[in-house]
Q: What sequence folds into this?
């Protein structure tokens, strides 16, 4: 650090460091929380307004792409934005990402058909990918290692609050205003975030006169490959059978595209997904472990609400509360995790968290039938605490092993693998649940079989109107759903055990953490 930089102290940006001055941290942290709120609130608010959107625009058969299209765009752009943030800096990438998200929100508010709304949701997702990856990277730039859990716990709290507040905000806007306001409300929030970032975020000065080289061919290849794979996973078993021509064709095309991507990236001077992401044991192990986390998260987020409503007989609001308790304990555990990993290390802390999560997931099938709502709620509370100990140490640990110029790529890599794991989990556990339900329907006693739904598509409709079933048929169907969800949780426990083994066998005992001065 130069003598001038020493004299200016905390109130000036330090040349060559990725960390904002201490006096600037508050406004920048507030901007990061506002930006993350845009992405966190998005899904919960939109899901509440779906009935009104479909009633206004039509397109019931394809409305699921409101979520799938957004998820696809976020996932496939994460590694691209990670590399761009390392090349051009976090500030321009984050501001452009928020601006693109706001543009998509404005277009969604003016959508005239379901097709146009889906297309504009993809535009939103293109901005959302920049927000999710770059916010996490800036958070690591902003604070030294010992203080990073503070900002990470704040970001986790944003997701927790959004899980509870999102449905309420969406319900109020659709009931007393119009569903288009669920998109327009993003504009003032995003505008404040952009203003705070533009005014307060300072980044290191460039040390090289060489113009940065962007691997646009690799970026396009990653985008196309990810898009094909996610489309196959999202639509398989829903829009068409798994072994049908569309599914097989998409999987074959994604495999060919993946091979082409590897060739392009090996030849690129500055690849979007550099080889060191998988050659370094720490990052490779965390990539695989967080992929398994995405896999297991499908059990509580997708199947628990169905269990709460169909088996426990709860309404949508109460069912949402059973799930939301996990998002309340997660940030608290994440905030406290630094006290654990500062003593025993990142790897051991993560092993303890995922080991506890495995046992907690295995406890779910032991719940009595039909049971009381507090029982699955308690399990979700404990699961959130365990996963807070697991995820945050791994993300902070990876960010602490790389210098500033590689942090965006490393962060985007682990988030990308978590998103891919979630998509794979939705397809895999959906198949497990469907197979279990189909088997239970086929094995139903002859006395009640005539009163049961004839196919899987009719199960949810029958559970929504149980009065049309006999008591014996309704009870049998509820037990079948409970068994299907139990099997999903067993699969989630297997995914947690896989993450445990990956960390135990592949991750180094001590993460090669760089001193704070070297990570800047």
A:
């Amino acid at each position: 650090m130069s003598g001038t930089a020493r004299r200016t102290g905390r109130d000036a940006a330090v040349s060559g460091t990725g960390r904002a001055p201490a006096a600037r941290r508050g406004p920048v942290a507030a901007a990061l929380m506002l930006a993350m709120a845009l992405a966190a609130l998005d899904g919960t608010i939109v899901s509440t307004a779906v009935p009104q959107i479909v009633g206004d625009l039509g397109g019931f058969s394809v409305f699921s792409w409101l979520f799938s299209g957004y998820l696809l765009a976020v996932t496939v752009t994460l590694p691209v934005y990670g590399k761009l943030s390392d090349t051009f800096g976090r500030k321009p990438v984050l501001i452009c990402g928020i601006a693109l998200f706001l543009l998509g929100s404005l277009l969604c508010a003016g959508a005239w058909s379901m097709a146009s709304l889906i297309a504009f949701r993809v535009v939103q997702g293109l901005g959302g990918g920049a927000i999710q990856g770059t916010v996490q990277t800036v958070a690591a730039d902003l604070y030294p290692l010992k203080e990073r859990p503070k900002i990470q716990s704040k970001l986790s709290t944003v997701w927790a609050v959004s899980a509870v507040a999102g449905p309420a905000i969406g319900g109020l806007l659709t009931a007393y205003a119009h569903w288009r306001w669920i998109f327009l409300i993003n504009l003032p929030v995003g505008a404040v975030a952009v203003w705070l970032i533009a005014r307060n975020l300072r980044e290191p000065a460039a040390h090289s006169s060489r113009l940065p080289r962007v691997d646009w061919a690799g970026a396009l290849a990653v985008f196309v490959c990810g898009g094909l794979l996610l489309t196959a996973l999202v639509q398989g078993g829903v829009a068409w059978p798994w072994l049908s021509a569309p599914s097989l064709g998409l999987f074959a095309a994604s495999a060919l595209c993946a091979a082409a991507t590897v060739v392009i990236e090996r030849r690129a001077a500055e690849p979007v997904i550099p080889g060191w992401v998988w050659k370094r044991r720490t990052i490779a192990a965390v990539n695989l472990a967080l992929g398994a986390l995405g896999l297991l998260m499908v059990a509580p987020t997708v199947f628990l609400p169905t269990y709460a409503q169909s088996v426990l007989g709860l309404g949508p609001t109460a069912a949402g509360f059973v799930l939301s308790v996990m998002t309340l304990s997660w940030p608290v555990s994440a905030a406290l995790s630094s006290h654990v990993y500062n003593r025993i290390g990142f790897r051991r802390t993560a092993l303890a968290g995922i080991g506890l999560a495995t046992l907690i997931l295995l406890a779910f099938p032991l719940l009595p039938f039909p049971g009381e709502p507090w029982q699955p709620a308690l399990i979700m509370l404990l699961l959130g605490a365990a996963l807070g100990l697991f995820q945050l140490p791994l993300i902070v640990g990876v960010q602490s092993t790389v210098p500033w110029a590689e942090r965006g790529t490393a962060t985007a890599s682990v988030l990308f693998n978590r998103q891919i794991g979630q998509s794979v989990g939705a397809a895999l556990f959906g198949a497990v649940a469907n197979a279990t339900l189909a088997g239970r329907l086929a094995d139903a006693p002859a006395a009640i079989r005539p009163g049961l739904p004839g196919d899987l598509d009719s199960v949810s409709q029958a559970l929504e109107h149980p009065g049309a079933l006999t008591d014996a048929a309704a009870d049998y169907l509820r037990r079948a759903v409970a068994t299907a969800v139990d099997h999903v949780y067993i699969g989630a426990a297997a995914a947690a055990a896989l993450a445990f083994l990956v960390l135990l066998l592949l991750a180094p005992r001590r993460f090669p953490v760089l001193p704070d001065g070297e990570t800047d």
Notes: The chain is about 75% helix and 0% strand. Confidence is low (pLDDT under 50) at residues 1-18.
